[in-house]
Amino acid sequence: MLLEQRQKLLFIGDSVTDCDRAKPHGEGLFHALGNGYVSVVDAFLKANYPELGIRVVNKGISGNTVRDLKARWQEDVITQNPDWLSIMIGINDVWRQFDSPFIKDHHVYIEEYQETLTALVKESKLQTENILLMTPYYIEINENDLMRAKMDQYGKVVKQIAEEEGCLFIDTQAAFNKILKNLYAATIAWDRVHPNEIGHTILAKAFLNKIGFDWTK
Amino acid sequence: MLLEQRQKLLFIGDSVTDCDRAKPHGEGLFHALGNGYVSVVDAFLKANYPELGIRVVNKGISGNTVRDLKARWQEDVITQNPDWLSIMIGINDVWRQFDSPFIKDHHVYIEEYQETLTALVKESKLQTENILLMTPYYIEINENDLMRAKMDQYGKVVKQIAEEEGCLFIDTQAAFNKILKNLYAATIAWDRVHPNEIGHTILAKAFLNKIGFDWTK
Amino acid sequence: MLLEQRQKLLFIGDSVTDCDRAKPHGEGLFHALGNGYVSVVDAFLKANYPELGIRVVNKGISGNTVRDLKARWQEDVITQNPDWLSIMIGINDVWRQFDSPFIKDHHVYIEEYQETLTALVKESKLQTENILLMTPYYIEINENDLMRAKMDQYGKVVKQIAEEEGCLFIDTQAAFNKILKNLYAATIAWDRVHPNEIGHTILAKAFLNKIGFDWTK
Amino acid sequence: MLLEQRQKLLFIGDSVTDCDRAKPHGEGLFHALGNGYVSVVDAFLKANYPELGIRVVNKGISGNTVRDLKARWQEDVITQNPDWLSIMIGINDVWRQFDSPFIKDHHVYIEEYQETLTALVKESKLQTENILLMTPYYIEINENDLMRAKMDQYGKVVKQIAEEEGCLFIDTQAAFNKILKNLYAATIAWDRVHPNEIGHTILAKAFLNKIGFDWTK
Amino acid sequence: MLLEQRQKLLFIGDSVTDCDRAKPHGEGLFHALGNGYVSVVDAFLKANYPELGIRVVNKGISGNTVRDLKARWQEDVITQNPDWLSIMIGINDVWRQFDSPFIKDHHVYIEEYQETLTALVKESKLQTENILLMTPYYIEINENDLMRAKMDQYGKVVKQIAEEEGCLFIDTQAAFNKILKNLYAATIAWDRVHPNEIGHTILAKAFLNKIGFDWTK
Amino acid sequence: MLLEQRQKLLFIGDSVTDCDRAKPHGEGLFHALGNGYVSVVDAFLKANYPELGIRVVNKGISGNTVRDLKARWQEDVITQNPDWLSIMIGINDVWRQFDSPFIKDHHVYIEEYQETLTALVKESKLQTENILLMTPYYIEINENDLMRAKMDQYGKVVKQIAEEEGCLFIDTQAAFNKILKNLYAATIAWDRVHPNEIGHTILAKAFLNKIGFDWTK
Amino acid sequence: MLLEQRQKLLFIGDSVTDCDRAKPHGEGLFHALGNGYVSVVDAFLKANYPELGIRVVNKGISGNTVRDLKARWQEDVITQNPDWLSIMIGINDVWRQFDSPFIKDHHVYIEEYQETLTALVKESKLQTENILLMTPYYIEINENDLMRAKMDQYGKVVKQIAEEEGCLFIDTQAAFNKILKNLYAATIAWDRVHPNEIGHTILAKAFLNKIGFDWTK
Amino acid sequence: MLLEQRQKLLFIGDSVTDCDRAKPHGEGLFHALGNGYVSVVDAFLKANYPELGIRVVNKGISGNTVRDLKARWQEDVITQNPDWLSIMIGINDVWRQFDSPFIKDHHVYIEEYQETLTALVKESKLQTENILLMTPYYIEINENDLMRAKMDQYGKVVKQIAEEEGCLFIDTQAAFNKILKNLYAATIAWDRVHPNEIGHTILAKAFLNKIGFDWTK
């Protein structure tokens, strides 16, 4: 496993990360990590590696785009000084283009997305080399679906940044694609975005596999 | 316009019809018709034909399948003795097959759907010849999407029953397909089923056009 | 239709415009436009002209008089820079004179009304020539009713300003008068001011007809 | 004063009488008499004639018509065996004809009204001669207003029954007409039916004056 | 009647005056005057003298002592510039000495009470000569009761100030004493302080009688 | 101490006993004994005599009179088969005569009180000789107060029954009288009936002293 | 993996199983399986074996003992006819002996526990051979702790029944013991019974491992 | 008894002291002292020594450590200027080390604890010599339990400070240890920290005994 004793792992992102986590701290007693993939990751880290004492912090905020992350990066990431940083952002950047097509100010187009996300990663690399980039996703099997196609483009940007900046790359879209061969999207998420427990487990599995988690421990 | 003075028009269906209508009566003061297409239809009937005094009743119930309609047909339709009867059912019959694939008891397959809906229409024809059948729909442009394809099959059943039983036929799927050429599905409904005001207006327009409504009156 | 592609249409007014719209933005997801005539207008614009992509913003606030509009004109109108601006104000200016006759500070008399509304229109004309003035109204058929008579005077002021400043003029009182020949006021509004869905449809129709809306599209 | 020591005075009616009184008993601690004219009457009876110990019971129920009174007359009036009985009913009998004109089943026309009210009075006369009939009213000064005119007809029926059956007659419409010379209807009730404290005081005064209440005591 | 056309009458006091009045204005629509004696006074002023158009404002705040009144006198009285000012204060000044005997800071002893109330009256006399002083009270018939006896002392201070400063004096204790001959205290107020509708009517009657109200008008 | 190992002690009474205890069982986890004197008694029994394992059950119900106890005696006392039974009833029997003087049906006069309480005690004596009778009380120092005097009469009835039936007698009025020499009634209960923690402690002390509780244990 | 295509897996137990699952069905949309180990098991079954389509039902009810299970076995287990049945019961049977030591009726002692659980297993074996017995547990590392020691005895009963009846046996206490070497009990559950996400993950892991779940699939 | 007439006794601490006390004052009407040991102490002081008039103030805040006390010492203790000061702090200082072992910032280790508590005591000694130090506790009988052992160390620090600074010392752990010989911990507190009424009574008894309280008074 890549994580070492007493390290701090910070997740940041949108509603998929947030999942009703405790505000503002995002850690502590009473379900402070929310009820999504962050909580699943934390529970398995503690259950399988209790001796490591990994500290997990959730800084997701519902509705956030990368533009919103930029505005709070200093407070919510830099001052936290994490050993590991996981970023999953972009769903709202794309979604608003499709559910609010006429409110242009709410859209974050791909150039701004790429530029902003790159800058945030670069800034955090001054603190840690251990950055994980999770792609945004759309739980839709049809690659020609307009929003899925757009989301794939943003996903490619994430992959490119991961390669350029030496981050660990987690292809959440690929993880969902695999399950979509057997389950229709609505089994996981009515709106193709906010997953139920099955979907959050898929995200957690993708994350844990990437950091070399030993499931049989 | 097909409706005549003092006639009663009754809508029955699922959550798309229900829209938080008053229970159990489905008519009266204080938004008793709910906030969906039934309310839009009523408001335009009153606004354009106040002299006709059409009485509108909403008997939609969220989550209903045609199996549920059968169980309450006597109480909610027959004893109401409507002059006009509009039925839109089938979305949940199909949806449960896709969002709860392993709970077979919640599925209403196409044979039961056809048989039940036909029986209900036949029973109501003893009261009135003025029956409108609205297809179920799925706000998804891709005809090869599994749930859309299944919904189309149920829609064809509705069309067939309408032809056999001499009902007015309203193709709601076609109405949504037209708008989907310009607007992505998420602009109308995150879950492709429960529409916002735009979607309910599309349903109301399809209904009103079918009954010969004069918009310029 | 007068509105062109990608234009922004802003409504401002009192509770009839507000209708529980999202504060402070007045646009976006989840019924942000409220449940009144603004929402009906928006839904029909999207349903009949999806290719135009009109952006609708609702800045109504319950209880407002023209004096209140003045106080927030800079923030809620000017900085929004709309292509089309629709103003319906005056009901509370008059109503307080009749329901709170002894609290003079809550009354906005006709001189202040005319002066203030004129100034606001003039200020907005620096931004756009496309201004629609909707009269205040009182859903009361008796022209000799004291409050109806007073409201008519305020309506005449609106008409005069529209003519002087070259605005489109919408006579909402006339629209209600027409329906009142067939329906008693209480069918539309118990208090003769806050309409139900029928009344909001009448307002929306008056607005859409004025901008050359094609209902049969 | 007509009422004598230890007598029970029972009020029955619709929402104007109800005013959130305690259900089902309509008497007792904690504002059990509601916050309308019944409470004002009781408070003045206790304040001016504490030595009499009049027992006041409120059996009003919102939305009731005379048809509803009939259904509960046995339980809510006869078994209570009051010494004095005050009835104010008819507003909803009329109002539904004007706010829900197309739902005929909710209307109570004048023949049924007269017949039913007469029967109830006759039945109660077997218990007590002390019956007060209060007219329904509509707080609208224009006698030619359709609903006011209709309400006046129902009021005449009440007057006729009072004369035929030897009841005390209270003309609430006349009481409101007097105040409407100085105050516009909206100062008392936005919907011309549910009065504020001013209107309930007018009703209480009319009642108390009829029973020979000494205000200066 | 002492009050003249269009005059403003302001009440200030503690919870007995407050009675859930609208904050902060204390006047306007929707039961803004609360549900205590102020509302009764207002309703009778409007019902009997609608032509006068008296404006009533309620500035009571629960729990207040004269020390609290002093802190808000400028904002809640002076800037309101009333034509008539009614003050009822002192119950909490005394009550805290009896229900919280060991928290001395919450007590307002008689010297501070007299000094403060005198100063407030003097300050307001610069605006208006029409000041009514209502005594605090305790709904307890036993004059030797410790709290009743103390309250009587505060009442005497009020009387003295009224005489010295030429204010109208209303002896609320005397008004309650009279009714207590027939009704036990608990019939009016379980805690001997917060009256039900009977008690508020007694207060309103005492006030209205003092200003020459004509009940038979 | 009179109570022996594993005995069950059941309290029955009105709101003073109830104090929001768990319904219907009146024992168990999560403050099931309510927050009044029963809970204080239980806590001290457990704290000082943990080895005895006394089981305490609370069957108080707010508003009850002895007439109400009679109606539920079989279910709430007899079937519980307690080793010790404590009864405190009568406050509402008296109070209703003073706060609702004109609603005679709510009064339980002293003959009915004595007869009913005697019958209940006799019935329970078939099960256990360990019955404690607590007097009703009124936290008012003035013996000539009408309600206090009446309560004293009921208290004497309790004493008489205790003597006749061989029950332990607890004079709660005497316990309050003692503290009233130093504290005014309002320090313990605004309404002279529902005590705060001080008053419940006084009741618990009186009870515990009667059963020979060793405070210094 | 032991489970085969389309099989139904039913969990029954107490609050640890319940976890706010949907009542009464225990399956379906919207987190119907609750937020405990049942949900984790279901999510991993769906995520790793979507092609199997396992149907999971949760019939846990908070506070249940084996006595409660017996009362609802017919309705909640037998009529459900599951292919796999998992039972975890006994915590409350023991806990009540320690948190409510004096309320003997709430205790289920080991003889009744063994007899009842055996009978339930025998009854269900007529339907299916696939029964899993999970031990009750107490998250306390000290084996000499009185409640832990008692819980271990109940666990041994479960083991014995599993062996006698040929059930799969899951030692949840052993699973917790392992983690307790690294984490203090309070990290998993303040009350040593209701676990947080870490504890539920430990339970789910123990279950999944027993049925041959392939974590790396 | 050590406390003298009119003295102020202030309690400060964490959730065990807080118990939903009124914020911010911590004294006054309506259960302002919360429902824990502070309230029990106050009630017995008032019940047994009403003539002394001891003023009790509760400044406990849930979740506090000694670090939090330091931050509010000036406002919540010094400016209150109490005659007697009781401090019970340390449970959270220890607990966080056991329930949140990986969030080091939430831990207050023993050096910081000792240093901070000593400083606070020294500062308060400038005001009063009457300081009571209550140990933190853990309701766990096993002295080798890791958290109990740690809590004992903190308790020893409290004892040492009490001796060095001349404070009264209350060994709450010893008080609980005594009862734990007869009652299992869960009978007093499921989480071994937040006691029910039995536990709060034990704390109150320990406190009252230390100040020479006469229970038989």
TrEMBL record, chains A, B, C, D, E, F, G, H:
- Sorted alphabetically, which SUPFAM superfamilies does this protein's record hold? SGNH hydrolase (SSF52266)
The UniProt entry, under InterPro entries, shows: Ester_Hydrolysis_Enzymes, SGNH_hydro, SGNH_hydro_sf
Q: Which residues form the SGNH hydrolase-type esterase domain?
A: 11-201
Give the Gene Ontology MF terms in alphabetical order.
phosphatidylcholine lysophospholipase activity
Specify the protein name. GDSL family lipase
A Pfam match is: Lipase_GDSL_2
